[in-house]
From TrEMBL:
Keywords carried by this UniProt record: Membrane, Transmembrane, Transmembrane helix
Pfam family, one: DUF2189
Residues passing through the membrane, by range: 66-86, 92-112, 141-163, 189-212, 242-271
UniProt-recorded name of the protein: DUF2189 domain-containing protein
Keyword Magnesium: no
Length: 287
């Protein structure tokens, strides 16, 4: 039967109906219908080495596809740094760069999907990775992502406040004067100490709540509460390995941001793929 073009009203009604069903499906999957947690296996340092090794292997396999996906992140970092220079916000450049560790688990969701599909033996490319936003997954993933973005915003606000109570209230007039004040004055040392302490709190919140929750939400329709609870349980069962993973991620991202954020082109995909394999090493489902 030959298809004909419907009138705009019927077409619009169909689009709205499909969108409504998608939103309904996304909302239904935010909650956990089965509150039972999967089996959580304690992690070891050997598991972390294995995950990083497989992360590098996935990156080598998907190299061209991954490059298309992650080029936007160095561009965002450069844009933020440029804005900071133009708006006389030099004191926020380091907090902005450090904040990549807070939103990293969310921006890497396409990488988890690539690793999942490769593990399943499917042929994949960067465009298919966008299937991660299917309605059954989009709801809980976006809610958890908004939580990380909110933490990033609060972190920047906290960093600005720390500067105000230490080196402020005057804004730095130049990069040289700001660096001199930070490294040679008691107020600068206080800013570094307080900033690091507060930053560790934010980093631990993100680490414990999103360590394996994003990959689990992509892999199974478990709902947001179960995924986050499983991530916290893993952190409680394997504090040494989890903290070592957090320090490894932080160190790699700090080094990656030094060459004008360009190192993120390598760091983000390797860490993203490695996170998927860390999840697979830690979680066992009954089926």
């Amino acid at each position: 039967m030959v298809k004909t073009i419907g009138n705009p009203l019927s077409w619009g009604a169909a689009v709205l109906s499909d969108a409504g069903h998608a939103i309904e499906t996304a909302a239904e999957n935010i909650g956990s219908h089965d509150p039972a947690l999967p089996e959580i296996r304690p992690l070891t340092l050997a598991d972390i080495r294995m995950a990083l090794r497989k992360g590098v292997d996935d990156f080598a396999h998907f190299r061209s596809d991954v490059m298309v996906m992650v080029l936007i992140y160095p561009a965002i970092g450069i844009l933020l740094a440029f804005m900071a220079f133009q708006q006389n916000m030099l004191h926020l450049i380091f907090p902005m760069a450090a904040g990549f560790a807070l939103i990293g688990p969310f921006v890497a969701i396409g990488l988890y999907e690539l690793s999942r599909r490769r593990e399943a033996g499917e042929t994949v490319n960067w465009a298919q990775a966008l299937a991660v936003f299917r309605p059954a997954v989009a709801g809980p993933v976006l809610v958890l992502g908004l939580y990380l973005i909110a933490l990033y915003a609060i972190w920047l606000y906290a960093a600005a406040w720390i500067y105000q109570v230490t080196l402020g209230p005057e804004l730095p007039s130049s990069w040289r004067s700001f660096t001199t004040a930070v490294l040679t004055t008691s107020e600068g040392y206080a800013m570094i100490t307080i900033g690091l302490a507060v930053g560790v709190v934010f980093a631990l919140l993100v680490l414990f709540s999103s360590l394996i929750s994003f990959p689990m939400l992509i892999d199974r329709r478990v709902g947001l509460p179960v995924a986050v609870a499983a991530s916290f349980r893993l952190a409680r069962q394997s504090p040494r390995a989890v903290c070592f993973w957090g320090l490894t991620v932080a160190a790699i991202l700090i080094v990656a941001t030094i060459p004008v954020f360009l190192g993120l082109i390598l760091a983000l995909p390797i860490l993203g793929h490695a996170t998927w394999h860390l999840y697979r090493a830690a979680v066992r489902f009954s089926d």
